[in-house]
Amino acid sequence: MESLPADTSWVLYAAAALALVAVLVLATSAAKNRRFQPGDVFVASRLSRGNRIFPTQVAVTPTSVVQFKPQWLGRQEHSIHISHVSSVTVDTGLLLSDVVIETSGGSEAIRCHGHHKGDAIRMKQLIQQYQTQRATAPATDAPPEGATRDCPFCAETIKAAAKVCRYCGRDLPPA
User: Fold this and answer.
1) Collapsing DSSP states into helix, strand and coil, what is residue 4?
2) I need a labelling partner for 40 at 20 to 30 A (CA). Which of 8, 21, 72, 143 fits?
3) Interatomic CA distance for residues 125 and 114, integer angstroms
4) With 80 as the cut, is the pLDDT of residue 106 above it?
5) How far apart are CA 103 and CA 92, in angstroms?
6) E strand or H helix that includes residue 116
């Protein structure tokens, strides 16, 4: 078995090292580009600025809007509660759309570039749908006004929202 000349062996080692680095980069990219949560997650196109290696993802849930930006080391997440979304702006270009989700809570707006037109419109529709559901949902936290219950300790009739019995002075369990 013949051995390779000394001047060509380093070329093979360099090529093997380069192939290993390429495989590691591709594996890292594939791992970081998977959807970060189930549900309605919208992934930006790789053809847009800032999304070449790790595209931005936006998740719209009934309680919040979350922007997820994977990075080589770590990730960046920005979330806005659905009740704090004040406006959604969709700027449609020739191929892709930019989406700006403004907040009334004093935090920074979510800005994402390079979403497909259908995804941008669907994001806006979902946010409006969840806000409407939240606004029209009946409040179930408080009992109806004027409702009463019996104190479990002294059996006197007290208001349903009471936290302390006015007769025996004991702390009450929630209604």
Assistant:
1) coil
2) 72
3) 18
4) no
5) 21
6) strand 110-116
